[in-house]
Automatic annotation (TrEMBL):
GO terms for cellular component: cytoplasm; GID complex; nucleus. It is found in: Cytoplasm; Nucleus. This is Armadillo repeat-containing protein 8. The keyword Phosphoprotein does not apply. It comes from the Eukaryota. ARM repeats lie at residues 53-83. Transmembrane segments: none annotated. SMART domains: ARM. It holds the Pfam family Arm.
Length: 663
């Protein structure tokens, strides 16, 4: 029946559609009016007309400058009506080059004309479709300047349309800079003015606020221009401050607070600026309360998460604003993925730095159950936000020992990381694992049983340096004060070849943690001897690379200190001492570092020397003699006499006391 109806529509419209191709301008005009009237308000008619292939003819009639302006206007209005149809309708229009044709038309059409307004309205409808055909609008300064001129001087409808189009188009640094040069900040500021005793219009204000936010997002240069842009006697921040008040429409207040947030995060406003402390932040906290609609609350939580993400003072202020913790807990209970995502992100930001705030979050009724459920949520955005929240809370030693164990949060986290997660989730999730694997965490043992070692070893082989760092960092935490079987499992799974690669990594932080892993593996005398007896040749190869390459290279002192501490740990083993003594290069480096100008490196070298020369252990006299021949005794005496190493004198004295016949 439906097919028959569409067939009848096509047949009945055939006569006037045929007239669109007439050479008689009057007939063309009549056909356009009939066609326009038939598609207004009817998606079925829109689909029918598009399916008959009329769009190319409409674009031709719209674009031909030699035609009667009224014909061009009617064709443009009809295109605009078709652009208000179904997503499939808009896809068809885009495929036929409608957006490009409208942009080309706007380059020459008279400003202030009805034709310009109709073209902008049609383009706005097309750009409201996702994904918008942003490539149709080039970063051409003449065109952009013309569009921003319309935004300042034309009719209200045209101004709103062009601002909306530019807001969607502004998706990166190139667009941000181009729009700034074209005067878009001034155009947006002009749209933000609300005359006294007038009702604020969201349809006018929201596009301008969205454009301003898009331009300032993570762009310090543009944010500074916006800060200094004025309309009348008010700057943009002052105009925004007027819009975050309680008497403004919720969506307007939200968008204005978002603009202030982006200005602050881009460095144009300090965190203690009154327009942030008394404007954006309390506005966003207020919009999170349950009196507001779910979409407003979700968006407000997300913006507040971004505002408070890095600044501790803002985190502390937000945590005590307008019962925010209770509001966020209630938002987590909402059904929409956007709401859960916004709330988890906000909790993550608030708990990033302050232990007292983390305690407040944890004590929020039922939150950890929601976090665990969030980790299992099928929406990847929700699960990622839940992992971010978990990562933030996992910085708390107290919570690792109590709440995290009570809820076994490691189980869904491990499951999530084993299910081929995206790179962002893998990064945040593996960072969380680093904290869960600290030595005091009760989750450490059960995570080992679930294949944590193998997962982390695989991370160290990733091309992303952040993932390699997380993998090796977590392994280092796992090896700290671990049982011998855990250390041997790490050695076996990671393998010496991969350890060599990590010691030569392009990221110094990876090298640092790899040295930390070696140091933790080679700790506790019994473990050292057991590992060295099984892996002596491979480990000493690693040690040679770690010591010779690192100590000779231009690495930070912290990295070199780790290398020396590894030697000190090996020197503490009963049998492994001989492996160091057999390597003259290593011993000479040890002597050199006793005279190093960096105090912490002298102390680390002294730690190695003390373990090697300790009296009363088998072979001590022979080791002392060999080290004295290489200059170690002389270096210790010079260190004792140094005024710059006074804080090391007790340790130097203890080491010298071991040399019975040499002192």
């Amino acid at each position: 029946m439906q097919q028959f109806t569409v067939f009848m529509d096509i047949e009945s419209s055939r006569s006037y559609i045929d007239e669109l191709y007439s050479s008689d301008a009057v007939k063309v005009m009549e056909a356009l009016v009939t066609l326009k009237n038939s598609v207004i308000g009817s998606n079925r008619q829109k689909s029918s007309v598009i399916s008959q292939g009329v769009v190319p003819r409409l674009l031709q009639l719209m674009s031909e400058e030699s035609l009667d302006p009224n014909i061009r206007l009617e064709a443009t209005i009809t295109i605009g009506s078709l652009a208000k149809g179904t997503p499939e309708n808009i896809d068809s229009l885009i495929e036929k080059g409608t957006a490009t044709a409208l942009v080309e038309m706007l380059k020459t059409v008279p400003l202030g004309s009805k034709l310009a307004e109709a073209a902008l309205c049609a383009l706005r409808s097309i750009f409201s479709h996702k994904p918008a055909p942003v490539d149709a609008l080039p970063a051409d300064m003449r065109l952009l300047t013309r569009l921003t001129q319309i935004a300042r001087e034309d009719s209200q409808e045209a101004r709103t349309s062009v601002i909306r189009v530019l807001a969607v188009w502004c998706s990166g640094t190139v667009e941000q800079e181009a729009l700034t040069c074209a005067g878009a900040c001034s155009a947006a500021a002009a749209m933000l003015v609300v005359p006294p005793r007038s009702v604020p219009s969201p349809s006018r204000l929201v596009p301008a606020l969205e454009l301003l936010a898009a331009m300032c997002f993570k762009n310090p240069n543009v944010a500074q221009v916006a800060l200094n842009t004025r309309h009348g006697d008010k700057s943009i921040p002052e105009l925004l401050m007027c819009l975050v008040s309680r008497d403004k429409p919720l969506v307007v207040a939200l968008k204005a607070a978002k603009c202030l947030t982006f200005l602050q995060r881009a460095g144009a406003l300090p965190a203690d600026d009154s327009r942030i402390v008394f404007g954006a932040l309390p506005c966003l906290a207020r919009l999170c309360t349950k009196e507001n609609t779910e979409d407003i609350r979700a968006s407000a939580a997300e913006v507040l998460a971004y505002l408070t993400e890095v600044d501790t003072s803002l985190q502390r202020l937000a945590a005590i604003s307008n019962h925010l913790m209770s509001s966020l807990a209630d938002i987590v209970n909402c059904q929409s993925a956007a709401a859960k995502q916004g709330a988890f992100k906000c909790f993550a930001s608030l708990g990033a730095n302050d232990e007292d705030i983390r305690k407040m979050i944890i004590e929020t009724h039922g939150l950890m159950v929601h976090v665990v459920n969030g980790l299992n949520n099928p929406d990847p955005c929700v699960s990622l936000a839940a992992v971010r929240c978990l990562h933030s809370l996992s910085r708390s030693v107290q919570q690792l020992r109590t709440t995290f164990q009570d809820h076994a949060v490691w189980k869904p986290l491990m499951q999530l990381l084993n299910d081929s997660p995206g790179p962002e989730l893998l990064n945040v999730g593996s960072s969380t694992l680093c904290n869960l694997l600290l030595e005091f965490s009760p989750a450490k043992e059960p995570m080992l049983d679930q294949g944590a070692v193998e997962m982390l070893c695989n991370l160290t082989k990733m091309s992303d340096p952040a993932l390699r760092l997380n993998g090796i960092w977590a392994l280092m935490n796992m090896a700290f004060q671990a049982e011998q079987k855990v250390k041997q499992r790490i050695l076996c799974c990671l393998g010496t070849e991969q350890m060599f690669r990590l010691l030569g990594d392009s990221d110094t932080r990876v090298i640092m943690k790899m040295l930390g892993l070696l140091r933790n593996l080679l700790s506790t005398r019994q473990h050292i001897d057991a590992i060295m007896s099984e892996y002596s040749s491979q480990v000493m190869q690693l040690v040679r690379q770690a010591v010779i390459v690192v100590l000779e290279g231009s690495y930070p002192a912290e990295v070199k200190e780790q290398a020396l501490c590894i030697l000190g740990n090996i020197g503490d083993g009963e049998k492994s001492k001989d492996l160091i003594m057999a390597n003259e290069d290593v011993l000479r480096k040890l002597v050199d570092y006793l005279a190093h100008p960096e105090s912490k490196l002298q102390e680390a070298a002294l730690f190695v020397a003390g373990n090697l020369v300790w009296r009363g252990e088998a072979g001590a006299a022979a080791r002392q003699q060999r080290l004295a021949e290489l200059g170690l005794l002389r270096a210790l005496k010079l260190l004792r006499a140094s005024h710059h190493a006074a804080h090391l004198h007790d340790k130097v004295k203890t080491a010298l006391a071991q040399f019975n016949e040499f002192t």
